[in-house]
Amino acid sequence: MNDRNEENGIGSPEETTSVPRALEKKEGRLWNRNFLLLWQGQVISSIGDVVYEIALGFWILAVTGSTALMGTLMAASVLPRVLVSPFAGVVVDRSDRKWLIVLTDLVRAIAVVFVAVAAFQGWVQIWMVFAAGIIIGLCGAFFSPAISSALPDLVPHAKLMQANSIYSMVYSASGILGNSFGGFLYSWLGGPLLFLINGLSFLYSTISVLFVRVPKITRQGPSQHFFADMKDGYRFVWRWRNLRWLIIFAACANFFATVAIVAIIPFFQQTPGLGPAYYGVIMALLAGGQLAGMLGTYAIPIKAGFRYRLFVFSALLCFLFFALFPVFLNVPFMATVAFLGGLFNAVVNVLLQTVMQLNVPADMRGKVFSLLGALSQGLVPIAMALGGVLAGFVPLRLLIFIAFLLPVFTLLPLFAQRDFKNFFTTEPAQEPQPETR
Questions:
Q1: Which residues contact 218 (CB under 8 A, 6 or more apart)?
Q2: What is the DSSP string of 353-400?
Q3: What is the predicted pLDDT for the residue at 432?
């Protein structure tokens, strides 16, 4: 680690950051008090999020009858997050991460509960819903990198991949449950009550995090101006060749996958013998494959020396399986490759998250993960627009095949780096120490 940081002209984590004894955990234990409190709070909150999104879509259509408003609301939630993300990472690295997580959860709880109460009372206005969406998006821009930054300091480094796996399973499982039961719950309970449930889920998460001990980041050098700090973060990423290529790969892979995903629904709609029913089945198997991949990386210990080979193997198979998806119009075949593609996709995502957390110093994690989020999310609207245009004159099967195959070529510059393997296999020099009582 020291050699790597000297090469990039940036002090080592030991020089720039001090992680004090503010952590309660037993040696080698994943399910310590801090991680359990954080995890179960996110379980409740993420289920509430998915149900809220479904209920909000149905509710806006019922109240206004406008699909344009529904789409605009989704954009209003995503766009502020993309715009703020580059600045949010600096705030994360300069703040007490625990209280930043608490604050963003609490603000979201207040915003959603306000909309729920207004809906119950009958004086809710569409602008209130839009304002709540913008607030939720803005808070998410700070919340996500704060969680990614704090997680390596809550669990032993040897268990970090398992922690990322089980944490990712929260969002995948909540997505499956929310999409499965969201419409039913809306019909049974109605929009306002589901809004209230989501607001209370944010409040529950807020209370849970209050009891989590998150180590503070203590800078040893003189404090910098905000924009100088942000510039240092970008320079850190740019000068570290392996990290730079890894972020570019993740952003490109997400871009091309989005282009392909835009074409999948019309592909099912226009292809004889497929249709919406089979689309639902295959998408469920894709999600099941992702859950299987996360469960595998949680249950099977993966040694540091094996991470690189597993990443190469999983990344190549992930996109090859997805590229094969439209080749043969056979439902069992399509379901199988969707499941396997989802499985290896989950392994790739868990490995990327873990390796970046292990290698990036604590006082740079917020900026790095915010930059990754800004690139990935910022390119999505462009990819969706491009996919929609290309689907108008490129055969859908060919478009899906090529779009899923292109990320394979973005892997080649990574594999050409001689020291990229070390990036995956290097362990940090120092573990955060448990709190002394």
A1: 17, 18, 19, 20
A2: HHHHHHHS-HHHHHHHHHHHHHHHHHHHHHHHHHHHHHTTTS-HHHHH
A3: 45
pLDDT at res. 179? 63
Helix (H) or strand (E) run with residue 1 in it: none
Domains and CATH numbers, the chain: 28-216 (1.20.1250.20), 236-425 (1.20.1250.20)
d(CA 57, CA 70): 6
Query: Whose CA is closest to 434, among 137, 19, 116, 73?
Result: 19
Which pLDDT belongs to residue 284? 80
The angle subtended at Cα 84 by Cα 82 and Cα 85, nearest 5°, is 65
Mean pLDDT value of segment 253-277? 84
11: left (phi over 0), alpha (psi -120 to 50) or beta: beta
The structure tokens listed for 246 are 């890894």
Cα-only R_g, the chain: 22
pLDDT of 247 above 70: yes
Least confident segment among 124-128, 246-250, 411-415: 411-415
* Predicted model pTM: 0.77
Residue 274 makes CB contacts below 8 A (sequence gap 6+) with 267, 268, 329, 331
Whether 366 and 149 have beta carbons less than 8 Å apart is answered as yes
Pick from 316, 379, 312, 318: nearest CA to 346: 318
Q: Is the predicted pLDDT of residue 7 greater than 60, yes or no? A: no
